[in-house]
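Supplementary notes for students who missed Thursday's class. We covered one full example, reproduced here. Read the sequence, then the structure, then the short commentary at the end.
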Amino acid sequence: MALIGPAVLCVFGLAFLWAWMIERRRDYLLLLAAAPALFAIAVAIQVFFWPASVPANALLSGLFYTVAVQIAAEAVLRRSGKRLGRVWHACAFIAVMGGLWYFAYAAPNLLARVYLQNFGYGLVLLVASLHITPLMRGRPVDRVLFWVLFAFALHFFPRTILTIGLEAPGDLRVFQDSLFWQALHLSLAVLGAALATALLAATLSDVIDDLRRERDSDGLTGLLNRRAFEQRAGAMLSVAGEAPCVLLVCDLDHFKRVNDSHGHAAGDEVLSAFGRLLRRVSREKDLVARIGGEEFAILLPGATQAAGLMLAERVRAGLSGLVFTFAPGGGAVTASFGIAERRSGDALSELVSRADRRLYQAKARGRDRAVADDCAEIPQPGPAQAAAVSTLPIRAPR
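Structure (token representation):
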């Protein structure tokens, strides 16, 4: 009975190891593969009673149990980009192992060891679950993972109290046939398998999301590509109803000259820097994309033409301050903008068509300017105007 749980968890451990061999950048998978193996070793030490000395057996099995729990907790946190830290883990390890040593050698007490380990491990996992509470605002699979981990951590407390109470069997052989021992390994098998399944599902979801991001992202700028922009913008417009919305289409001026004069590496530098600039000045809910070689688009839901003109000027001001390796003096690259505000019943194609026409007008009027639907124009600013615009708040990069 005691070996069923470790065997089941080791199967999951092999699955995590296989997943890590495919996705080695996800180091938490290797930790998840190690935790069941360490747990299985701890159970084997107790079941086969090696070493035969009771204190040594308790301390050695406790060592593997403790490390397995801490590794599992750390793995779950690393998947979410969080960590408990070495100091926290060191303090938890010393507290549990120090207590085990005391109740195994200094003042032998099996009941105290049982409560120390179960409450200690439950506390470690509970702290880990509380650190990932932000997952409750995420995907369904993340919410499931949180609740499974929370239940797994919490079960250590009532299970221990209800199955062992205030008195433990004096003989270890009797102890291994007790209700506590059987309930312990049954619960660890069931809840451990549930937690492992939730982690596998979450990992699979992570991989799928990464593939979607790679599919939808422009490799050079990190912005949306044309396909993803058209798909998301179309969906956004379909649910927006009659809410205001404005589209900016921008094109880097004379970009071919940069490639011809300085090489494609310089062109890539410009595109990458311009992509970072667009991410800085846009809002979280805006759609920002590279839709062509040097052509970009920004869809601003809930915004008007005036907001579009202001954003275009922020971008132009930011672009004028960029310094490139091929042009140490700065100001080597400019951009032109076409701005279209959505009219009642406009589809995305109509919005893009009007913004493109305004972009062509901006280029025809000398470039480095923004032209809106009503032909309102922000021309190339003078020094004072540029300085004023450059002081407008720009959001931190995301």
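Commentary. The radius of gyration is 30 Å. The beta strands are 245-252, 287-290, 295-301, 335-341, 370-371, 377-378. If anything here is unclear, bring it to office hours.
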